[in-house]
Amino acid sequence: MAKTLYITSVVTFSGKTSLCLGLGLQMQADSKKVGYLKPIGTQPFMVGNNLADEDANFVRQVLRLETPAWELSSVMVTNDLLEEILAGKDVETIGKGLESAVTTASEKHDVLLLEGGTSMRDGSSVGLDTLHVVNRLDVPVLSVTRWRSLRFVLDDIMAARARLGEHLFGVVINAVPEDAMELANEQLRPYLEKQGIRTYGILPYQQSLTAVTIGEIVELLEAQVLTGDHLFSHLVENLTVGAMTVESALPRFRRQVNKAVVTGGDRADIQAAALETSTSVLVLTGNLQPSPSILKMAEERGVAVLLVRQNTITAVESIEKIFGRTRLGQAEKLNRFQAIIEEHIDYDRLKEDLDF
Prior knowledge:
- By secondary structure, the protein is of the alpha/beta class.
- It is about 40% helix and about 20% strand.
């Protein structure tokens, strides 16, 4: 039977999927046969005629798992399922396949990673939130929390311990800014260990890991590509709005590298200023065509220019929704994160404590 580890977090976008990938790859490099399940699927999409979870399918692809994508989640939370519950469906019947799926997966692997929902409350509507799943399966839990401040991290970790009790196996603190690394390592880690909370890793923040690709922006905004259709895989690390005067915009443009600048298609002054600095993509709003000189300048500097129908505020709000998540769909980002895992996760201790 496989050693099972449930990876969860108190709040959203803490890095659960990334940690599953990083640990899974390291375990595979250690010659372990790794299995993965996401008991509660919350990002449904179709694979042929079957419903699967998008994150689970991504993990499947990276770890090269043999299990079909639609078998990686015991329950897919869809509007249809929620409407059945509103109509009187017994939630106790929904999770019956969970134990069976975990048992089957355990028999085929050395280590089984279970990924929780976007937060501990995910799955409550179907009776399978983190606490119910952990108690039902009686598995150890690794809680990952994203650094926002010392107070928030302590609150998150102590809340996890209060909720999970003896099931809390340990914690990983993710995305710690450079100026807080010393505090986290020399004060926070010893404090947590004295509290009986194993701290298996303190991972530094890297802005490049939260970047998105130009191609993702094109797809998100359904943009018309005016230049740079060969640049879709390039990473965008910063987002800024060109809605001010050139004098006000230039200092900000100069501070930010590999950025997307969102501005009106009629703002040639802002567009030219952005092209003089480290810009990856210009997103021109209002469906207003730029001047030929701007397009020529962008082509010479290797900058993509996108034309979108949305106004500037709507376009920025849409892009902001995909910024800030550690999306490891590009090999470069995955390799960077794996290097962070190898350097900052105490894998030997984790392996010894899990006894695998």
